[in-house]
Structure prediction request, 960 residues.
Amino acid sequence: MTALGRWLAPSHPAQLLLGLTIWSLWFVALYGGLSVACELAPPAPRQGALTGINTWLAVLTLATLALLAWLAWRGLCAGRETVGSARFIALVGAGLHLFSAAGVAFVGLPLVVLTPCL
Amino acid sequence: MSESMRTTPEVERLHSELSAVWGNPRGWRGVFSVVNHSTLGLRFMATGLVFFLLGGVLAMLIRTQLALPDQDFMPPEIYAQVTTMHGTVMMFLFAIPMLEGLAIYLIPKMIGARDLVCPRLTAFGYWCYLFGGIILFASLLLEMAPDSGWFMYTPLSSSEFAPGPGSDFWLLGITFVEISALSAGVELTVSILRTRAPGMALHRMPLFAWYILAMSLMIVVGFPPLILGSVLLELERAAGMPFFTVAGGGDPILWQHLFWLFGHPEVYIIFLPAAGIVSTLVPVFAGRPIIGYGWVVSAIVITGFISFGLWVHHMFTVGIPQLAQAFFSAASMLVAVPTAIQVFVWLATLWLGRPRMSLPMLWITGFLVIFVCGGLTGVMLALVPFNWQVHDTHFVVAHMHYVLVGGMFFPLLAGAYYWLPLVTGRMPSERLGRLGFWLTFLGFNLTFLIMHWTGLLGMPRRIYTYDSAMGWDLYNLISSIGGFMMAAGIAAVLVDLVVHGRYGRRAPHNPWGADTLEWSLAMPPPNYNFASLPRVESRHPLWENPTLGDEIARGEHARPGAAHGRRELLGSEALTGRVREVIHLPGNSLLPLFAALCLAVVCVGLLMRIYPLSLVGLAGAGVLLLRWSWENGGHSRAAPLGHNDPEDPPLHSRTADGPGRWTMGVALLADGAFFLALLFGWFYLWTVSPQWQMPDQSPLSLPLLLASGAALTLGTLWLERRVAALRRGHEAGLTLVLSAIAALGGLHVALLVAALLAAGLEPTATAHDATLLVGLAYLLVHGGLAAILIALQACRAGLGLVGARLPFEPGVVALLWRYQLGVFWILSAAIALLPRLTGAGS
Prediction:
């Protein structure tokens, strides 16, 4: 197995950090993307939430959500098949991925209702 | 360990050997050269206690001033200094160092190690903390203390509105103290990951170690943005570089971002170790294992991450788009989830156990009540409209104290009462302790519960007096009475802590019936902690084997004694706890003290604007730190193994992945956080600053930058190749190759200097040029350091201190080269290439 493959295995300790790192990168992209987009091309306020900015950020949010959900499912399956520290890492990692997915959904929810750049 | 076990001559000899090797030197030299974690941990805590008392006196002055309307007990300028210093002292000189001290004292004992992995770094951190604290506090005695609030918002803290040296004291003193925090953060991280007892896999690690691991990593990532902010603001104040001045293309809001990027995680950096105390004590006093160990670990990790995504909720009133505010509002509510997980775990453990309401548990109960209330007002403050209403009022002050005093101070005192018998061998007074608790608990709530109302009635924070017509009189008077009641409670606790050492009842062994390894030691523990290093395959080693302490003291476990005269630790695998190597630790030394003294000279020189003095101090610190690094690995002062000594497990300097490499990796993580903050500052000013001035043509010469980068790339690739060969046992021509790589490093630096000189920057005219200068200076410092370190490696290879048998060190330096390669190309792209590609200035 390659070094990258080992790091991505569900029982590697990096799984304890991976989900929330993805959440953090998504969060930075969300806030940074919104800020830059509002500086460069702010949409008219009357458009409401149906703007290109909201749409692109929502697509990013859904993609991140799907990735995290898949990682959580993978960790859960691996946790059932392993023992000892590998099982601990896989299950805690799965829980952290799941929380990160919930965090993406919850924090991303305002994209549906709020006007950007106002 | 029971005293009766030290009876046989064999056991006596074992302990004498260890005492001779691990003992602290006597006399004045001993005071200044000691590196032992127990001694230094206690020093951290004692110094933190002194600063806490000073900060407490400032709090009493504030409450005296506010007790009645229209008071003139203090003039406004002194009041501003007192409030600023109260917050600064409590946050930077008490809370963080106190918890670090506790961790430094306890972690090796809990994970079955004899010391932390970098003992001289512990000493260096302590001296930096002490000198930084003294410099900062001296400003108050000189009546020139900072007066812009503990968060030093620009432009209030800038030269225009704070022309005196107060802000400089804050910026330089805090940066000095933060060196200490980073030192502790780095070495605690590596110690927890790499020096746990054999068999102590991650899932068997004490919860306290998980909390400290998270705290340490948060310090490593969270403190650098404030260090960068402090550097930039000091450059603006001292040299006129307009990073935060709108007219020069800067933006004062950038300071708020940098400060709160540090400031909000800081709250959790303080809370997490305190929660670690709670998670350690609750199972002991409930008499059963904690419910949901994995849930707690998850909650710790979640808190560590999410707390970095909340900083903007301190800035809801600065004009950020509503949608962005909604993101941060949601994230702020999200962080309540891991905290709630922990609260429910603690309650469930108490519910299913048989709780004993001993003195430490009383403080834990007080914590639960106060902290949960503080958490609820935190969720209220996460709501944007409510936040707007109470922004900068006493409501926020009350919330902050509920979270910080409830979340840190109460668990800290629970921990102090719990571990006191371990430190002194005596029990505290139950009666005095209970009196102290009730006075503190009632006094605290009287002060700060009432303060919520004062805030809701609109009383702003930091005003030095108020008119009676405002209707705040009674509330302020009650708060002041409560404040003095709380002070009386803390005085009772302090009396108890001081006198119990002499008059307290002798503590029985493991007096609370605890499960963790520190209670297997003698009380107080010897300098070497463990006479032999136990194998740990349970989360509750002392519940599983109550005689473990006696076995350890008899030398029945690994590496008993120290006939070889070396300080040894066992290095273990981060995940499984399997033994990988023997780690030799350096002994007592004056080098950390002298290096910290030189940095104090730098600090004082900058304060007094005597820059040649600062340069001398900097050069002195550099020489001393390099000397410190020289006495390592195969050096005779590091007491290396002889050729015939056993190599199973191998000595760390004869492996390719010893703890020094991990230390470098974690230190570079901190460096990376600093770099990312710098990059954020560049892009922030570029896109947001209202009067940003980008020149039509980038002043940086692309050919020179490309040539400099090519030399660096070539050097890094060559070094990586050579390190790989060394690990395979090929050492022919090593000195020559390392010298050539050092020359490439020198060329890289020289070309970078040429690019800087050719740019003709005017850093006092525009924030653009000032940012370029800081970015290039960052690359120059790292490039210069990389070149010097590899040149030293060439010298060491020539002396036989590095080679096929000792392949460790070049791999450590290679990490720095790899890092420099990454940041060089990223920064070059950001400051030289991207403006050209986007045509930003035209």
Q: What stands out?
A: Strands of chain B lie at 567-572, 579-585. Chain B touches chain A through 32 residues (CB under 8 Å). Chain B has 25 helices and two strands. Chain B has a mean pLDDT of 94.
